[in-house]
Design a protein that fits this description.
The structure holds two protein chains of two kinds. Chain A is an alpha/beta fold. Chain A is built from twelve helices and 33 strands. In chain A, the strands form seven sheets. Chain A has a seven-stranded mixed sheet, sandwiched between helices. Chain A starts with 6 loop residues before the first strand and ends with a helix. Chain B has three domains: 2-283, Alpha-Beta Complex (Spore Coat Polysaccharide Biosynthesis Protein SpsA, Chain A), CATH 3.90.550.10; 301-417, 3 Solenoid (UDP N-Acetylglucosamine Acyltransferase, domain 1), CATH 2.160.10; 474-640, Serine Threonine Protein Phosphatase 5, Tetratricopeptide repeat (Alpha Horseshoe). In chain B, strands 1, 4, 5, 6, 8, 9, 10, 12 and 13 form a nine-stranded mixed sheet that branches. By secondary structure, chain B is of the alpha/beta class. Helices cover 41% and strands 19% of the residues of chain B. Classes of the chains: A alpha/beta, B alpha/beta. Chains A and B meet through strand 11, helix 6 and strand 12 of A and strand 11, helix 6, strand 12 and helix 12 of B. Strand 12 (198-202) of chain A pairs antiparallel with strand 12 (210-225) of chain B.
Chain lengths: 456, 641
């Protein structure tokens, strides 16, 4: 007998990292080093902490072995079931979920692979359970951003802002759209304001891309081929549908059995008759202000859980976020992992240097020669740093070779790069397998093979 | 104690309030003809009495009553109160100020600015406000706000209220957006507008991390004002009402350098304003139900009377009278078998036998003879006399012959129907219609409260507003709007640029896609152009109209796909109107072609999609044949060169 779990977790890690193409040309985004662990480890560990024993990890086919071996090294205990997508298939997040349809039997928790946070997920679960919600999403207040110089050419970081409206009384998510969809005016249906008389419109909240989806939402998604993105299409659509009333049908429809022919969301969003009867008999109401029954008799209910203000959390989807999360990860380590031991210097690393400060993270197989100096940096697997070099405030990825007398400050060095003798790099991004010539000096540049540059 | 606290707020100043006593509208006609708004009896006590009592309880020490109509009566009443030592006279000084030249709320404030009697922050009350709010904490809060924001001119006092609650005037449905410090960002009275969409400027959301949108608020018609308010009114002579003021400040925040904040009343604090008969009734009910405690109706509840009936002194009720939700003034004489429901009868009125009064207001000293029936929001002026068996429904009655008297208005020697906007038929704006309706609310008010009780069955209009957000026939509405715009443009010879602007705004209002815009505009132009009498100059007229609309057409038919839409529109018109002159289609096509609205290729492509058996095909065929020939010729010419 198999026990049906309450939630099934899906981690979406098939993103190509198109917003940070400078550093993801050859490396899966989910394996970017963040502190002592690859990026995808953080959401997986979060799920493990929350009590999940199984997770479905959606990744690209050709990256599977790389990801698998990287994750094995981290010693994560949660059972990972891999679901792969061929590289050339352009699948959106919703498409990935649709692909998993057969494996999803319960309500689903969708997590993005780039989410690093110390938030307690139980608040979200409880909100979802309490209201028997259709969708619950986790929102975060923006992080205090300190002025740190991000490597690479100076560019104006344009924030992608969402307009998110939440009913103050009921925490219902009543409006969700991207600010860029509007020109100078925002139009709201009057019925929305009539129904939710006091709403708060946020423009600075960060959508964590963590969603709890009721089972019927997956079924509905299966029947609607037009959605390809969860955040961009599916969620806004369902949020909008909250305002609609189900079409009046004379005879009750056998909805779930033959949903295909109806194509109507309300056929999927049907609630259990017993639940309805209980609600009707109960004196509970989720709102005051009008004399409508609980939930306005809506069968579609979307909720938003806004994490407490002091929560640390960010999505590593831009260079700026990657940089700032990497910088803060050590400080927040204890809260993020709930007291897991922080291994700064991997036992398999050969460290002959005496100048490694306690903010550095050294991965396995790293070879740091004598007379080198490190401050506040991450050095990932199998990287070699030769004598008389110093690295400050930087991220160095796997298999990088740094020759002698190199000075690196505020840089991101990607996989397999070779920095020749005497280079001085400041605020640069060195692309993967790029060789920086001897004695060259660069400031605030992206150094990469020109043909790779074409990609972005 | 009060004094001490207030001194903390204003170091040396005393706490001042301004009460305006005139509404400057004719909501209360015909009663307001002889009775100032301030002295309107509410449970047999003048309205102003409640206001003044509230102010003195709220901690105000000096009040200016600003009056511009029926001045003497107000003065007399206030003096009488002072002589009698009414409660509020003990802690509060009341000055009656007079300016008969004022024609609006704004005028009054400008006049007050000129007089310079106010020293610091003050409380501003619009006419008819009744409340039980403690004002001193609000003044203090305003004071703190002004310290952090020097430009803070006004704190509006708004009250949370339930949707469709009786204390919420449907004509003052308010939509407010504030930032996290309660600073007002958006303020709109929806009134009776039926727009399904509400537009907000995007920047208020982008400039602020979070914006609260409130649709559950009620304007209490009270505000705490900084000393800058009066000069602002003086500087901006176009501010006529408080709403003008708030809107003006929001719109020109940078120029005027002033901001508005709001305070939201919650819990047992109550405030409301009698601005029309509907609110008169609503506030009477609220008073009766002790929402405004400690202000309560002066008349004692008579235990023998059931069904929420209140009567004044000296009024006697016979056993046979059937009363429901009625308020009777002093010395009202009732006959036998009288039925009064949901009505207000003022003092000294005589009501004969078998009279029925429902949803109406009867002024003082009226005489209603037996057998009469007064229903549906009728209002009788003081001193009306109704003959036997008169039936009055939904009318305003006055005792004297009104200026615009017409035959049929006379019901009796002392009862005439009052027409309010008789000669302004061409000028009836929505606003006036609206006001007319507000009088009737007293009638449909009960209907509404019935709905509230019956909340589980959704009421009709709620249902409507909850259905699919974009109404499906937006495009149709858009089409009719375009027709309207164009017709008016043609009649009034408006410049086409204006028409284009109008059409564009309707386009956004109804959210119509470009393809449909093109289609509908061409269709509208054609329909209009073809509406000509069938005379010999038919085509002349037709081309005249088309030429007139040329800029419009040019503006919308810009590219290949627009041409396609245009041709589809022509097809649509041609097919749908049977009686169309058969040469019309060819004429229009020719015209459009010559004017270069549509290209040859577009026509030929379109023509190839027509079914060969259709009537249209036959009509168009000669034209396309001609086109093809012309093309060949020009092709030949080119090759010759």
């Amino acid at each position: 007998m198999t026990f049906q779990v309450e939630f099934q977790a899906v981690v979406l890690a098939a993103g190509k990292g198109s917003r940070i193409s400078e550093i993801t040309t050859t490396k899966p985004k989910c394996l970017l080093p963040v502190g002592p662990m690859p990026l995808v480890w953080y959401p997986l560990y979060k799920l493990e902490q929350a009590g999940f024993t199984d997770v479905i990890l959606v990744i690209l086919e050709h990256q599977k072995s790389e990801i698998q071996s990287a994750l094995e090294k981290t010693g994560i205990e949660i059972r990972i079931e891999y679901a792969t997508i061929a590289e050339n298939e352009e699948l959106g997040t919703a498409d990935s979920l649709r692909m998993l349809y057969d494996r999803l039997k319960s309500d689903v928790m969708v997590v993005s692979c780039d989410f690093v946070s110390d938030v307690d997920l139980h608040g979200l679960f409880n909100l979802f359970r309490m209201h028997d919600a259709s969708i619950a999403s986790l929102l975060l207040h923006p992080q205090q951003s300190e002025a740190s110089v991000v490597p690479g050419p100076k560019s104006k970081h344009k924030m992608e802002r969402d307009l998110i409206a939440i009913d103050q009384q009921t925490s219902r998510l009543v409006f969700l759209a991207s600010a860029s969809d509007f020109e100078s005016e925002l139009t709201l249906p009057r019925s929305l304001l009539k129904k939710h008389t006091n709403i708060k419109m946020y423009s600075n909240l960060i959508d964590s891309h963590i969603y709890l989806l009721k089972k019927w939402v997956i079924k509905y998604l299966k029947s609607e081929d037009s959605f390809s993105s969860i955040k961009g299409e599916l969620i806004p659509h369902i949020v909008k549908k909250q305002l609609s009333k189900p079409p009046k049908t004379a005879e009750p429809r056998e909805s779930i059995v033959s949903p295909k022919d109806s194509g109507d969301i309300f056929a999927y969003a049907k609630e259990d008759d017993l639940d309805l009867a209980i609600r009707e008999a109960s004196a509970y109401n989720d709102h005051i202000g009008d004399l409508k029954p609980a939930y306005h008799q809506d069968t579609i209910r979307c909720y938003a859980y806004v994490a407490p203000k002091d929560t640390f959390g960010a999505r590593v989807n831009t260079l700026m976020n990657y940089w700032s999360v990497s910088g803060k990860i050590i400080d927040h380590w204890e809260k993020i992992t709930d007291g897991k031991e922080l291994v700064l210097k991997h036992p398999d690393a050969t460290i002959c240097s005496t100048q490694v400060d306690n903010k550095c993270v050294i991965w396995d197989g790293v070879n740091l020669k004598e007379k080198t100096s490190f401050k506040n940096c991450v050095i990932a697997t199998n990287t070699e740093v030769n004598s008389f070099s110093r690295i400050f405030n930087s991220i160095v990825m796997n298999n990088v070779t740094i020759k002698e007398k190199v000075a690196i400050e505020n840089c991101i060095i990607c996989d397999g790069a070779i920095i020749e003798n005497g280079c001085k790099l400041k605020g640069c991004i060195v692309g993967s397998y790029h060789t920086v010539e001897e004695d060259s000096e660069h400031t605030s540049e992206v150094l990469t093979e020109s043909d790779r540059l074409m990609e972005f | 104690m009060l004094r001490k606290e207030s001194q903390m707020v204003h170091k040396e100043n005393i706490v001042q309030a301004i009460v305006l006593t005139d509404t400057f509208d004719d909501e209360f006609l015909p009663i307001s003809e002889h009775l100032p708004h301030a002295l309107l009896p509410v449970f047999n006590r003048p309205l102003i009495d409640y206001t003044l009592e509230f102010l003195s309880l709220g901690g105000i020490e000096e009040t200016f009553l600003f009056s511009s109509a029926h001045v003497e009566a107000v003065k007399r009443y206030v003096n009488k109160c002072i002589e009698n030592g009414e409660g509020w006279t003990l802690t509060m000084k009341v000055n009656v100020m007079v300016s008969e030249s004022c024609r609006s709320f704004g005028d009054c404030l400008r006049d007050l600015d000129a007089k310079g009697v106010l020293r610091g922050e003050f409380v501003l009350l619009e006419p008819g406000t009744v409340s039980n709010v403690d004002l001193l904490p609000l003044l203090k809060k305003h004071n703190i706000t002004t310290k952090s924001d020097k430009g803070c001119a006004m704190t509006l006092i708004l009250q949370e209220s339930a949707i469709r609650g009786i204390g919420r005037c449907p004509h003052e449905e308010l939509l407010v957006a504030t930032d996290s410090h309660s600073k007002l960002l958006f303020y709109k009275k929806l009134g009776s507008s039926k727009d399904n969409k509400l537009e907000f400027p995007l920047e208020i959301f982008l400039d602020n991390a979070s914006v609260s949108l409130h649709h559950n608020l009620n304007d209490t018609h009270m505000a705490i004002c900084s000393s800058s308010v009066l000069p602002l009114f003086s500087d901006n002579f176009d501010f006529q009402t408080k709403d003008d003021f708030v809107r003006g400040l929001l719109m020109n925040e940078e120029i005027l350098g002033s901001t508005v904040y709001c305070h939201i009343l919650k819990g047992n604090q109550f405030a409301g304003s009698i601005t029309n008969w509907r609110m008169y009734q609503a506030l009477s009910y609220e008073l009766r139900n002790n929402w405004v405690h400690p202000l309560i109706p002066s008349t004692k509840r008579n235990r023998k009377l059931k069904n929420d009936v209140f009567i004044g002194e000296g009024t006697k009720i016979s056993e046979t009278a059937e009363l429901n939700d009625a308020v009777l003034g002093d010395d009202v004489a009732l006959g036998k078998n009288v039925r009064i429901e949901d009505s207000f009868v003022f003092s000294n009125t005589k009501i004969g036998d078998n009279v029925v009064i429902t949803h109406s207001i009867i002024g003082e000293h009226c005489t209603i003879q037996s057998g009469s029936e007064i229903t549906s929001g009728s209002i009788l002026e003081n001193g009306c006399v109704l003959e036997k068996d008169t039936f009055v429904k939904n009318s305003l009655l006055v005792a004297k012959i009104p200026d615009n008297y017409e035959n049929g208005d006379k019901l009796a020697d002392k009862a005439y129907r009052l027409r309010i906007f008789p000669d302004e038929d061409d000028n009836i704006s929505i606003n006036e219609l609206d006001r007319k309706l507000s009088r009737l609310d007293i009638g449909d008010f009960n209907y509404e409260s019935d709905e509230i009780e019956d909340a589980f069955s959704d009421s009709g209009d709620e249902q409507l507003s909850y259905t699919q957000t974009p109404p499906p026939d937006d495009t149709k509405l858009f089409y009719t709007e375009v027709i309207d715009s164009l017709t008016r443009g043609l009649e009034d010879k408006l410049p086409c640029d204006n028409l284009i602007l109008e059409i564009n705004s309707s386009r956004y209002a109804y959210n119509v896609i470009l393809k449909e815009v093109n289609f509908n505009i061409v269709k509208a132009v054609l329909i209009l152009s073809l509406r000509q009498p069938e005379t010999t100059q038919y085509f002349g007229n037709l081309s005249r109209v088309l030429t007139y609309f040329a800029p419009v057409l040019k503006n919308y038919i810009r590219n290949e796909s627009a041409m396609k839409d245009c041709l589809e529109a022509i097809q649509d018109v041609a097919v749908s109107s049977e009686s169309l002159h058969e040469k019309c289609v060819t004429f229009i096509l020719q015209y459009f072609y010559h004017k270069d609205y549509i290209s040859e290729d577009a026509i030929l492509n379109w023509f190839s999609t027509l079914t060969t058996s259709s009537k249209l095909y036959k009509q168009v065929k000669p034209f396309t044949d001609w086109l093809k020939e012309a093309e060949e010729e020009s092709g030949e010419e080119e090759s010759e060169q």
